[in-house]
Design a protein that fits this description.
18% of the residues lie in helices and 26% in strands. The protein is elongated and about 65 Å long. By secondary structure, it is α+β, with helices and mostly antiparallel strands. Helix 2 (51-58) crosses helix 4. Strands 5, 9, 10, 11, 12 and 13 form a six-stranded antiparallel sheet that branches. A five-stranded mixed sheet has the order 6-4-7-8-14, with no helix packed on it. The chain has five helices and 14 strands.
Length: 242
């Protein structure tokens, strides 16, 4: 997989959160990740929300947030930080990066899945990173969502090359809800596919079905995992953030 850089941003120093180390900005996004206190202050300023409303929305104690904002307390738990981010309607990564309010929540596209092309699944990115980032569709919450790009045309006309597929995978294996549905999946040779998953003839195997009649189905495939596609985004509707 080859990394890609998209989106052109103009350098600006306007709109920095107070006391933030993110003094250089590209477009609306900070170049440096902020501390929780700085991120909270920026989110409050950007959205014009009160600390009390964030406390009520997140379930995090108001006095704790007040203490953090005033610098009297320097730390908070990851669970509390995540709840605060959710109260602003964004992921924790986006919260720390200053992507709140009018800024768009984004999702990293972590790789390609084969639709006719045999694609190796390589996990070379740190959490939150990917080939590039795209704006999260309004139909989805960015939390727990994984995005991949379709390579190949075996799923045409359902998915054309360049389609972005969103899915959620909590565990290894093939859950019952995956059978009979189009899924993002990984076989035992670490190839990533997007196919309709059906039970195979041999125990423990599956048939991967192509939608394009010009392609043969893949039989007797053993899968490490499969996750139903939650939402497909055609290439013409993809908004690349970076």
């Amino acid at each position: 997989m080859v990394g890609s850089n998209g989106g052109n941003y103009t350098h600006s120093s306007r709109g920095n959160p107070p006391n933030s180390r993110a003094t250089l900005r590209w477009g609306n996004f900070p170049c440096m990740q902020q501390t929780f206190r700085e991120a909270l202050e920026y989110a409050l300023t950007t959205t014009k929300r009160s600390l009390l409303s964030v406390s009520k929305g997140s379930g995090v104690n108001y006095e704790l947030l007040k203490s953090l904002r005033q610098g009297r307390s320097l730390t908070t738990s990851s669970d509390e930080a995540m709840k605060v981010a959710e109260a602003f309607g964004v992921t924790l990564d986006d919260f720390y990066a200053g992507r709140v309010g009018d800024a768009v929540s984004s999702i990293p596209v972590v790789g390609h899945v084969g639709a006719g092309a045999e694609v190796d699944l390589v996990d070379v990115f740190e959490k939150g990173d990917g080939l590039y980032r795209i704006a999260c569709p309004p139909q989805l919450s960015p939390r727990g969502i994984v995005a991949v790009e379709v390579a190949g045309d075996s799923m045409v006309p359902v998915y054309v090359p360049g389609t972005i597929l969103f899915y959620t995978r909590a565990t290894l294996g093939v859950p019952a809800e995956a059978i009979g549905h189009i899924c993002v999946c990984e076989d035992d040779e670490n190839h990533a596919w997007v196919k309709q998953v059906r039970i195979g003839r041999e125990e423990g195997t599956f048939t991967l079905v192509s939608m394009n009649p010009d392609y043969e189905h893949r039989h007797a495939v053993r899968l490490n995992w499969a996750a139903p596609v939650r939402f497909p985004l055609p290439p013409e509707f993809v908004r690349r953030i970076d």
